Amino acid sequence: MDLAYIPSPSTGVIDLGPIPLRGYAFCIIIGVFVAVWLGNKRWIARGGRAGTVADIAVWAVPFGLVGGRLYHVITDYQLYFSDGKDWVDAFKIWQGGLGIWGAIALGAVGAWIGCRRRGIPLPAWADALAPGIAVAQACGRWGNWFNQELYGRATDVPWALKISEGPNRVAGTYHPTFLYESLWCIGVALLVIWADRRFKLGHGRAFALYVASYCAGRAWIEYMRVDEAHHILGLRLNVWTALIVFVLAVIYIVISAKVRPGREEVVEPEAVDAGGVEDAEAGDAKSEDTRSGDAKSEDTRSGDAKSGDAKAEDAEAGDAEPGDDSGDAAVEADASASKTSGAAETAKG
Fold it and tell me: How confident is the model at residue 84, as a pLDDT?
């Protein structure tokens, strides 16, 4: 008897009235939004403009979905084109089946188109988005849980995944490889963020670190899976893909660090131009304020001068007031009366 296990959902679809909400599609959508949100924050921190990541994602995401589906259909063609299979199922993406290798490859083509239209270097944009892509994969892997697919070998560990009976699967408890990969992707995102801050990765090296570290985990997780797959020299096709891509990513990091060391100083020329215009406008406004201040000072000085002149005129006017003239006339009258009185006394004597 199993004492502990991770239960699987009874259904991967929730009907919201006439609209079916599929768990697999919901996980993919959540992953895309998280990737764009985190990428936007990192892009702004690098000196880019808000919204640029989303504008380019409009090109990258559709290309990535098509690429991921094409890789899955081509490498697992027997699921759609062998006897007894319906090839129309190849278009039913909501039933699961996206190859990350094709999604990244064709998604990069879409991103290149978007970057070229905006005059932005693709490596810088990829560096900003790298951790977000890893988090998006972590979210997307839970879609496999809803579909009860891509699990590992049978096991009785406490965290085993319980699978119910269904088409192409046998009931039992298995290694939850979807959970292993989801947790690994979270670790990859944290590693890239730390390394980017510590070593100032640029020119696509943060993205290459994401690719290399993801492939390292995908190789051993893929080795645990038991779903049908093509084998080459005893190894699953995706194991070989992970090993080859890992080597290419490491080579890129080494060569890029020698050829183009450091990090891009400018990632979005439009942001720099806009910043220069804003600074110039701010400088003009300050100059205008300065001139206005000078004019006010001039008015103040003019007002002080006029006030001083007015005070001086008032002082002069005060010296020539009628009261002063009355005083002088009174003095003269007293003197005249004194002279008259003296003459009269002389005559009497």
Answer: 81
